[in-house]
Amino acid sequence: MPIFSPDRHAHVPSYVKLTKQPIAGGTYRPLADNEDSNACAPSTLSGHHSSRLYTQKPAIHATSNNTSVFIPKVDAPHLPKTANDESIDEAANDSTHSAPPSAEIQLAQANEHPLMQAIEVCKQSVHTTAKALSTAGHAVAKAANATGHAIRTAATAVKTAWHTFVNFKAVQLIIKFFKKVYALWKKRMRFSYAFYTIVFFLLTSAEVIFLQWGMYSEPEYDKSTEIDETTKVLQSVAGQVTRFISQMWLEQKNVCLVSFVGLALIYLALILVTNRFWIATLVFGVALTAFGVANSIKVQLRNEPIIPADLTFISGGDTGSIMSFVPKSSQAFVNGAINFVIWFAIIAFALFVLDGRRRFIHCSWRHPIANAKNIIGNIFRVLAAVLSVVLLSAYAMGLGTPGSNVYKWAKDNGYEPQLWNAIGDAQANNPATTFLSLSKVKAMDKPGNYSQKTMESLAKKYTQEAKTINQTRTGELTDNTVIMILSETFSDPTRVPGVSFSLDPIPNIRNIKNTTTSGLMLSPGYGGGTANIEYQALTGLNLANFNDSLIVPYQQLVPNQNDPYSFNQIWMKKYGKNASTAVHPFQQSMYLRNINYRKFGFSYLYTLDSKIPLKHTGCIDRSPYVSDSEAYQSILDLLDRQQDSKSSQFLQLVTMQNHMPYGDYYDNNEFSDANISEDLSDGERWNINTYTKGINWTDQETADFLNQLDQMDKPITVIFYGDHLPGIYDTADMNKNNKTVLHETDYFIWSNSASSSHGTKVNPTTTAYTSSNYFMPLAAEHMNAKVSPYLAMLTELQQEVPAMSRVIGTNGGIGQGKATYLDHDGNDIKVTALSAKAKELLKDYKLVQYDQTVGKNYLKDLDFTQVP
Q: For residue range 143-157, what is the model confidence (pLDDT) as tens digits?
């Protein structure tokens, strides 16, 4: 009979005590360890009881840990049998609380019923896990109850303390007072939409008048000239503003209405977007007042109004830089405007508090579909905001798009755009209209024959032209380190009609010009526009080819270009990315130079606020700007770094010493006594004297700089030019016959002793007049250097059209027109009078400029700018 039966759960086991038998012999054999034994033995599945079996000879002891079992040497079948053997066997097999079987028995059981054993083990595991989870749950619940009890206790204490506090009589009196005030506050009047309309109309009209007032200045009359009072009144600021408004009735020109509509659309968009009338009123009033103040000051300093591109000064963090340009004469005006803005803000905020109508259009975002009123209000709120922005955008875009419905409507109401002359446009049409008309700018119109095939043909044409030119040239541009110096407002004041000195303010530069390649440069600016001349010099492109609405490429065009071309890349291509560096002793983001120079490929722009700032920042006497000698020292430092290197560099310097305004900067100004000019006002004479002393310093410092370059054994060529005249020649500016002379500055191209071009002077007939877009082809001719197809085209064009530019105007009407072309004698050339070759070259030039700026840039892959 087997010792273990699988049917051990069939009946309740019985226990019989057997007679003790002596242990005849045997061995102890260890069982499986506790964990394994308990997992497999049947006793572990219901281990609530234990039992002990007695046999005649061997004894099997079952313990709780089942560490070992004694196995007798005598075979079980030879044991003496008793009458109770059968019952004992049944009890041992059927009991669910029996002791663990021997190892052999367990193994046999596992082999015989593995599935049942696995099921039992899983059941026990589930039971254990459930018990553990239950225990954890009870613990968490207990902790939560304890926490909740603590919170309730604390809340009760706070509530009790609060009730005790509010039950004080004094507190009760205060509470009752505020309840009454709040009841009255809830019943405060809602301002009517009619009142909103009145405020809307008055504020918009006031801003139109204020902006127009900032476009004028009080006229100055010669003491010897007799002017009747009526003329003085009409020409005064008040008289000119009155005329601007009254022309609605006197001349049927509703230009004031056009400006009013533009500002009204801005105001309306603010109201509908914020949905708060008084908040929009506050923003509109403060912003437009600040705009008017800044516009008035810019007109005084630079003779041009604020345009959309100027907003990059603010977004670029240059507000402080702009404020440094505010002259002392305008400080009182600025202070008055600040006081007005403060009081206006106080009044607007007070009205916002007193007005019971919080929302201009009813809406409820918390309960958008609670009722029909909320649904309609929310829909109308969103649509009104979107439509107001769309309407404003369409109006602004229409003003700058000839042929549009908005443009036609404005023209019918007297709008006459003068986009080539921003100051004239703003005076005639209001600066708000000028600003909006320039908000959407299209750089160039697409030429009719522009295509990839056309550009490939053009590239082949000028590649052949470059080969022809290069047959007689032996050098390369990169044989020399080229330093391009833009000298702020440098020009000879003695060339200005009506200005005379008994001393020569620029004797050194005059002598340099007589011994090297030099002449006069036609500048597109007067009183400002530095970045435009700089852009032409670095890229070879010209403003005359752009649409009139594109005023500042550095702010309106270059930041949006992916890969603009500039001449410094010639040196980079041969010597690596560190071969071109720029220096500007002022803020790096003025005219977005930090962005544009990076796009041009300059390795670094050193400024006063660059990560590695300039070391040389000294000024002359009381001047607020870094002197030219300090700026030149920064260039010398860059040259010293590569003194032992065989590679050349392209260095760009834009100075600041002679920047406007001109205060009492210099000690011992001999030009105050040397000024023998006649018919100048005191203010004009003062500005001219200070400016002349400044360029006299430039003359000395430039001569010293060139002498130091001459001592170096490295070939160096300098391109030096003034960007524009300062806007201080009021008397000459009033004469329209001075159109050209107020746009002429001095330039020269000079090489040191180590350069093979030292002492070279290109034919004065071809260099007497030029424009900054031709500087690089002239430098290549000066250095006898080979040219790229692009430079070959510019070389040919300069011979046919020596100077060209879109002259940006002045108060006296100078600059009226889209483009100015000069011949070799400095005379104006009409486009219709140009030779057939010149007209063809201009067409090719426009194709190239379009391709490089807003076109497909086909020429990039055609080696058009590659110098051999």
A: 989 998 999 999 999
The backbone torsions φ and ψ at residue 666, rounded to the nearest 5 degrees and listed phi first, read -110, 140
Give the contacts of 525 (CB within 8 A, at least 6 positions apart).
532, 533, 723, 724, 743, 808
String of DSSP letters for 332-355: HHHHHHHHHHHHHHHHHHHHHHH-
- Cα separations in angstroms, 592 against 312, 359, 424, 661, 800: 7, 40, 26, 21, 34
Angle 830-835-841 from CA coordinates, rounded to 5°: 95
- pLDDT tier for residue 207 given thresholds of 50, 70 and 90: very high
Q: What is the DSSP string of 634-679?
A: HHHHHHHHTTT-S---EEEEE--TTPSP--S--SS-THHHHB---S
- 93-103 pLDDT per residue, tens: 444 444 444 44
Q: CA-to-CA distance for 397 and 439, rounded, in angstroms?
A: 7
First and final C-alpha spacing in the chain? 111
Number of H helices, E strands in the chain: 31, 12
Contacts of 571 (CB under 8 A, 6+ apart): 477, 478, 482, 579, 580, 648, 649, 650
Q: Cβ–Cβ contacts within 10 Å for residue 655, how many? A: 28
Q: Quick one: average pLDDT of 734-743?
A: 87
- Distances 809 to 300, 743, 813 between C-alpha atoms, Å: 14, 10, 6
Place of tokens 């810019």: 298
- Residue 94's nearest CA partner among 185, 6, 16 is 6
Total Cβ atoms within 10 A of residue 108: 15
Q: What's the farthest any 2 CA atoms get from each other in the chain?
A: 159
Q: Does the structure show a pLDDT above 90 at 840? A: yes
Residue range 682-727, pLDDT digits in tens: 889 999 999 999 999 999 999 999 999 999 999 999 999 999 999 9
- If pLDDT is split at 50, 70 and 90, which confidence band does 759 have? very high
Q: In DSSP terms, which residues pair with 749 in a beta bridge?
A: 517, 719
Give the H or E element holding residue 105.
helix 103-112
Q: Which of 636, 650, 644, 656 is nearest to 581 (CA)?
A: 650
Range with the poorest average pLDDT among 324-338, 504-518, 589-603: 324-338
Asked if residues 237 and 246 have their Cβ atoms less than 8 Å apart, the reply is: no
Question: Per-residue DSSP letters for 7-48?
Answer: -TTSS-----PPPP-----EEEEE-S-HHHHHHHSGGGGGTT
- In the DSSP assignment, the letter for residue 574 is H
What distances in angstroms separate CA 292 from CA 287, 327, 336, 408, one per listed residue?
9, 16, 13, 27
Evaluated on CA atoms 523, 524, 528, 533, the torsion sign reads negative
Rg for the chain, CA atoms, rounded: 47
Q: How far apart are CA 667 and CA 779, in angstroms?
A: 38
Q: Which residues are CB-contacts of 396 (< 8 A; sequence separation ≥ 6)?
A: 262, 436, 437, 439, 440
Q: Sheet containing 580-583: give its strands across.
A: 604-606, 580-583, 650-654, 481-487, 716-722, 744-751, 517-522, 769-771
Cα–Cα nearest to 341, from 306, 296, 299, 291: 291
Residues comprising the chain, all counted: 868
Residue 583 pairs in a beta bridge with 606, 653
Q: Give dist(CA 160, CA 522) in Å, integer.
A: 87
Q: Read off φ and ψ for residue 537, nearest 5 degrees.
A: -65, -35
Phi then psi for 487, rounded to 5 degrees? -95, 115
661 upstream amide cis, omega within 30 of 0: yes
Which stretches does DSSP call E strand in 468-603?
481-487, 517-522, 580-583
Mean pLDDT for 717-745 is 92
Q: Which amino acid is at 6?
A: P
Report the pLDDT value the prediction gives residue 300, as an integer from 0 to 100.
Answer: 79
Q: What pairs with residue 519 in β-bridges?
A: 747
Going by pLDDT thresholds of 50, 70 and 90, the confidence category of residue 814 is: very low
